[in-house]
Amino acid sequence: MWSTFIVQDEEVRTGNASAGVHQPALEGFLGSRGGGRKRRHRTHSNSGDGISESQEGKIKLTLFLAVTGIMLTVLGVGTEFWVELTPPKNFDNNQTCLVAHYGLWKCCTKTFGLSDMDPKQEICGPTHAHGESNCTFFKFYTTGENIVLFQKTPEKDLTVASAVLAIISLFLMVMGAMCIIMAVGKGVQFFLKPASACFILSGVLIFLCLIIFHQSVLLFLASDQSIPLRHEMSWSVTCVGCAGALAVVAGVFFLVLALPYSPWKRCLPKKNSDI
Predict the structure, then answer these.
(1) Closest CA to 173 of 258, 82, 246, 237
(2) How far apart are the C-alpha atoms of 250 and 256, rounded to whole Å?
(3) Using CA of residue 141, residue 145, residue 148, residue 151, what is the dihedral sign?
(4) Sequence-distant (≥ 6) Cβ neighbours of residue 216 within 8 angstroms
(5) Which residue in 112, 72, 65 sits closest to 89, CA to CA?
(6) Are 275 and 107 in contact (CB under 8 A)?
(7) Which residue from 86, 102, 123, 224 has the fewest beta carbons nearer than 10 Å?
């Protein structure tokens, strides 16, 4: 009887011990199956090529600046208020006054009566005054024919070069924005560096575009000194200039975020509190 009881007691203990061995293993297996994806996600986020939550917020904020630059570029390139030209009041005749403004693609002239102007004013203007407006696209993009404005012809080659640089810079901005969207969507830092290069290069091209366009305006005014014209760079140039600055700033920020270390910690290390 005692031997039977001892054998049964040992069998119960052996069964409990084996159950205790297999139960944690089963729980670990189920835990790995249920939380494996979560562990892999954390490992990917903590790796050197991953994007942390704090980095993602900074990237999105910088992307907002870049998108603002893209919108300003589209607005500036698509409008014709790059330069405003105002001649003397007696240029056309004693009854009307003619002003003009043009951009990369189109030229507009406006005619209004001298009675609508201040009698003490010596030049025509302002260009936003009410009058009859006439706008035409530049034909040198299609047929190669140049226009005559105030008996002067704009510099065709420089204007075309400015337009090409503006289009290339806008294309680079869009490519940079797509790289950032892919970086945030896939959670990797690999796309930050090409996006930074695209934005910085686009900003440089925009400033080069403005310089070339301004030089074309100066050559246009110097082509015929017999007709004095007053010129003023208008709000389209301001939009494009601000867009170029935003593109460069966004590119620099993306480059800083792509670094494997924090430049602020390298430049300004924390002092040891024990000393």
Answers:
(1) 246
(2) 10
(3) positive
(4) 154, 155, 158, 159, 162
(5) 112
(6) no
(7) 224
The predicted structure's pLDDT at residue 179: 92
Token pair for 4: 């039977």
Within 10 angstroms of residue 63's Cβ, the number of other Cβ atoms is 20
The distance in angstroms from the start CA to the end CA of the chain is 76
Q: Are 84 and 127 in contact (CB under 8 A)?
A: yes
Inter-residue contact 69 to 172 (CB < 8 Å): no
Q: What are phi and psi of 151, to 5 degrees?
A: 60, 25
In sequence order, which residues have a C-beta less than 8 Å from that of residue 132 and are 6 or more positions away? 110, 111, 112
What pLDDT shows up at residue 2? 45
Contact 176, 202 (CB under 8 A): yes
pTM: 0.74
Order the strands of the 132-137 sheet from edge to edge.
132-137, 106-113, 96-102, 83-86, 230-233
With beta carbons less than 8 A apart as the criterion, state whether 74 and 170 touch.
yes
The torsion angles phi and psi of 135, rounded to 5 degrees, stand at: -120, 140
pLDDT at 111: 81
Divide the 275 residues of the chain into consecutive groups of 10 and give the mean pLDDT of each group: 47 49 45 43 47 82 93 94 84 73 89 72 68 81 82 86 95 94 84 92 96 93 80 92 96 86 56 47
Cβ–Cβ under 8 Å, residues 111 and 98 = yes
Residue 217 makes CB contacts below 8 A (sequence gap 6+) with: 83, 231, 233
The whole-angstrom separation of Cα 69 and Cα 236 is 13
What the block records as the tokens of 221 is: 């005014």
Would you state the structure tokens that stand for residue 213, as one six-digit string? Answer: 């366009």
